[in-house]
Write a structure and sequence with these properties.
- 40% of the residues lie in helices and 26% in strands.
- With 223 residues, it is of the alpha+beta class.
- It folds into two domains: 116 residues, Trna Endonuclease, Chain: A, domain 1 (3-Layer(aba) Sandwich); 91 residues, Arc Repressor Mutant, subunit A.
- A four-stranded mixed sheet has the order 3-4-5-6. Strands 7-9-8 form a three-stranded antiparallel sheet.
- Helix 6 packs across helix 7, helix 6 packs across helix 8 and helix 7 crosses helix 8.
- The mean pLDDT is 92.
Length: 223
């Protein structure tokens, strides 16, 4: 979906295509390019957070003075939640010691957000990777999304979601493969699959994504 921010492309080594993680994001409504694995995982986490409306990776580069040093820093994410609230985020890997440059970059972003009246959050690696099984499943399921199917066939995907939730509400917990076969007999296979996955992302269908790898035998239950 359209947002008030679009990604910036900075002239440094991180903008080189070989260093980016490319993937279609249903919440951003477009292909995304992330600079490293942690940022890629965070984008997946945001896609699968029911309270998140949309997000944008690398929305701004800011400048501030910190410790008498002129600092240029990148905000890693802009996030908008369902209630309309917005925030900017920077991510940080867990390691024994952070460099002075990293600390100053975080502080520069914090000060810029405070000056501009924005909420700011520094998201740690342990927060992103708190549930590795869920993250692995979400990453796997995100791989089924592509812009051609999801954007151009949005009505079909929505129709598939409606059929899926109605089935689970009427008949109870259903294996993914059984539900997929029921729906794909009436709508395209790609749209049927995405319609079911959308319900999982939105929290309208539940599964044991934090306990077991997702497969065709995974039971889905209406929330």
């Amino acid at each position: 979906m359209p947002t008030k921010y679009t990604p910036i492309w900075l002239p440094d080594k991180l903008t080189h295509a070989g260093n980016r993680w490319f993937s279609f994001s249903p919440k951003a409504g477009r292909d995304t390019a992330l600079a490293n694995l942690l940022h890629f995982e965070r984008s997946i986490q945001l896609d699968w957070s029911p309270n998140v409306e949309s997000f944008c990776e690398y929305p701004k580069e800011i400048e501030r003075w910190v410790d008498s040093v002129h600092v240029r820093a990148r905000l890693h994410f802009w996030v908008q939640t369902k209630d309309g609230a917005e925030r900017f985020e920077r991510l940080a890997y867990d390691k024994p010691e952070r460099t002075v440059e990293e600390i100053r970059a975080d502080e520069a972003c914090r000060r810029w957000c405070a000056d501009e009246g924005h909420q700011f959050s520094c998201v740690k690696q342990q927060e992103v990777r708190a549930d590795l099984q869920f993250l692995a499943n979400a990453r796997y399921l995100r791989g089924f999304y592509d812009e051609r199917t999801y954007v151009s066939r949005r009505a079909d995907v929505a129709a598939a979601s409606l059929m899926a939730i109605n089935h689970c509400e009427q008949f109870g917990p259903t294996k993914f493969q059984h539900l997929f076969e029921k729906i794909s007999g009436r709508i395209s296979a790609a749209s049927a699959r995405l319609g079911i996955i959308d319900l999982l992302r939105e929290g309208r269908l539940t599964a044991q994504l934090s306990k077991l790898p997702f497969d065709s035998g995974t039971f889905l239950k209406a929330k």
